[in-house]
């Protein structure tokens, strides 16, 4: 974590650019938030000044002529004014609360939209996963990043308003002097020299306040970094949960981690010391200034420059002025510090997309005649030196079934990833109907494929939406696909589920992550749902990566028996470790160490006894030979 | 977020939804208020004693401070109005401000201590809670009641408002508020005691308005939490887990997902608007109370001032006494509320800390060192959440050192059976005997140590590879020769040679920057090494070949004999091929054992096992037949 936090040198223009971009993002997430923010802050800031002014006027009147009518009028203005201001300010605040609600969720949604445009390669890069988590952590734990810019905006506005109000109310304090001769200290107080000294005191105070708040911000930032590390550790430790934690006695390691890193973290005591130090300093500083202001205003009130009411006013406003100035500088300091988190965010959403963006439309032919060809395709994963695929040449036409077999790590899944354009080949070309696939529009190209990956994912959303991969769906079609995927019985039992509120099985959520009333499907059922999703898409190419891994023998057999019905008129590509399933395929491609080493029908491959396929086949088949003994 | 191991395959882990605002009103806590306060103070005394003392010292300090703050403006105004000499005025001003400074400093010290002590207290509670939860019997994991307790008790330290840590300051606050109440009350009584009564009425109005709001909000809390859960899932969960990305791209799901998100977002916004409307309404009540209060007190004070009964300085004094008084009353109510809420949280926390375990945590009979027998006598089990029994009246005996295969359809209860075997689940009926003794007779941890597995859902820790293999808390615990041997046998030595730090290389890149990521195959090997290192007398292998290619699968079967050489072993698999290496096969069907025996016996019996085997082998055999046909045609 720490090496990311190194302060980088940026000039002010760059800093400003970073903030302005954050502002733009904010304005997209919270339309026109700044108008409301300014209105809100204005009324909230003016409130105490209004009170101060009114009470000083009232005290002046009390100490002066004490006219009951004027006093009552002042009281009425004070009370009604306060009521009005608080009401306006509260209703604005409430509007603002709605408008700026769900900051975290909006931020995550923003990142979601941004990352769905990223090149797929980045999403398999552990560095990027780390970066994504860091952005989440920045926001959720430290409110750093764009949320900090938003918070800083309203505080900066508030402090600026404070400064303006304070200055306009205190100018009279310095300008008003009494006519007449005073000796000693009173004379000095009445002279312009005292005003200058007071001003100098204020300036010194502001200067020191800035230093103090800078020190405090520094201490906080250090703590934040340490806390971030602790947090990540804690989260990660908390996730280690399962029965092997018990049988292997691993919980004690987790607890040991907790004890060493989290129980009495150093950053807390450091922060405590810093808090005491800086609070003491600013208390001392403020007391000196308060005494000076008290004496100065008291002297002027004493010699009758202004009423004693002003005494209250000045004392209150100067206090606010000093705090506002030091807060303002602290705020700006924090905003600049926050820029490093903005950089992390921008670095993530600005990741380069080097995939070639094609513009050709994919022809939707009625005669569904597509042909795919791998022409001397080689591929290396980014950041690796080994070839995952090497010189692969293969051609397959619509209507054929192709099985891909090979050992773990032989390049089978990579082959699928290239075919689906999750990655572009390092060398060679993949052609669709003779045209390089990179030249087609991506969204249209992937429409050609119904894929069930080995590590497929389903969302916690309702079943129907999952099968249709869409928010809206055709209910009959969804049901039909589920039945074809072998979930007909489950569907009937769910529709009859008396315990559930929602009677329509398609509207029930999958799992309980999204909806607590969701259904816990078994691994095999989930695999069938994924299959139904592929069927619903009804694309010309069906790609199944280990479609039966989670199924028991009977369910597995059912899938294979149906497979031809499932994929009629389609090109089906299978990956399977259970070679028995490959027998149905027109062609079998055998991969070994990234190379296509054999291809042909099952019968021809198995008869080549020196070949890879034969070895794989016999490794498995021998266990099912009735005559073999243990 | 606690997850049941039985949950279906869902990618990634879910993070807890922040339920900090989940107030606990309207539910009767298990422990009483006083008992919770006592419990908290005991905890504080043992862990953060400073907090207890801070709660005592803060009372006089805050009392004097509020007195000084109340009197300073009035006193200064009064000397200004009456004194003849400026030096007197200066002395009064400087004196008062210095006294204030002194006590401000004291309070500053106390509050800094308190803030960070509360933070440490929070960590402390988190630690206690975690160590309890990680030490309790595993069967609790499946009990929905206990899941609820977990969820509730977690709130005790989820927000910055740690349960109970604020008690000392709250009590101090109440004491000093009451004393302040007397101070301000006496000031106001001088003026007119009726004012106090009126202030109390105003305060009650505020209180009831606030209570109305809280009740309304509370009644919709579940609905709001549900919606928030959905929103969090639709924003954070699907976005943070990149595993979703592949399917998202290939099914062009970006737009539909954003549509769904917008839909859920708007529902949440509507709820929020409702809450905010209530906020404005209650605020309106309090503003009206203030309007009347201030209007009345000004009129009254002006009347007095015009009659010469109060001067400017007392005017200020009285007015601030009145406003402070009503603030004080609001505050006392607020703190009482906080203490009650806190007590409920503490009660929830205790409930989880006091959870009773069933297995023997004390001294048990000596555990077997050698492979031992396992016997089930009429065992039945049903998951607390389940609709029907998973196992019904099952009896069997596995002899010491026997190798058993457990086969059956999905959901037949194979994993459940092995969990019962090693005490991770406890049977509803019947008895389980290990080496002839009930598993309740052994010390739980010693009993757990008898078993080892390669689980489907495994955990690797963010410590070194060596520590993971040896399950070692510290480096000193590792037996390095044994470690080397296990790395060798598991086939991990090649990978480890490529690492600059060898076996000391850390795992988990989210925590350790220079950690290594292992591939799926390497992870499997590491898990195997971990099992070898432990070398337990009983081994359980749950679907270890599901993701393996034929050659690796074949190798695994052949290794199996070596791994299970000196152990009783149970092998769960869909692939019936695995059964060939086992002495006996148990076929689970429904809630019962359908069949048991060795491969030949079961094949001869011609029942379910045979059916399964035939289905699975048919394709291989058909191939063989066609091969033979090919050959015969060739020879013809």
Give a brief outline of the structure.
The complex is a heterodimer of chains A (630) and B (636). In chain A, 61% of the residues lie in helices and 10% in strands.
Question: What attributes does this structure have?
Answer:
heterodimer, A: 630 residues, alpha/beta, 6-stranded mixed beta sheet, 4-stranded antiparallel beta sheet, elongated, disordered N terminus, B: 636 residues, 19 helices, 10 strands
Tell me what you see in this structure:
The complex is a heterodimer of chains A (630) and B (636). With 630 residues, chain A is an alpha/beta fold. Chain A has 21 helices and 10 strands. In chain A, the strands form 2 sheets. A 6-stranded mixed sheet of chain A has the order 6-7-8-3-9-10, with helices on both faces. In chain A, a hairpin with a 2-residue loop joins strand 4 (427-432) and strand 5 (435-436). In chain A, helix 2 runs antiparallel to helix 3. The two termini of chain A are 54 Å apart. Residues 1-6 of chain A have low confidence and may be disordered. By secondary structure, chain B is an alpha/beta fold. Helices cover 61% and strands 9% of the residues of chain B. Chain B has helices spanning 33-47, 49-82, 86-135, 144-158, 167-191, 194-219, 221-240, 245-250, 254-306, 312-353, 414-421, 444-448, 465-470, 480-490, 493-498, 520-534, 550-563, 599-605, 608-635; strands at 374-381, 391-398, 403-408, 429-434, 437-438, 451-454, 538-542, 568-572, 584-589, 592-597. A 6-stranded mixed sheet of chain B has the order 6-7-8-3-9-10, sandwiched between helices. In chain B, helix 2 (49-82) packs antiparallel against helix 3 (86-135). Mean pLDDT of chain B is 85; it is low at 1-25 and 630-636. The chains are: A alpha/beta (630), B alpha/beta (636). Chains A and B meet through helix 2, helix 3, helix 4, helix 6 and helix 9 of A and helix 2, helix 3, helix 7, helix 8 and helix 9 of B.
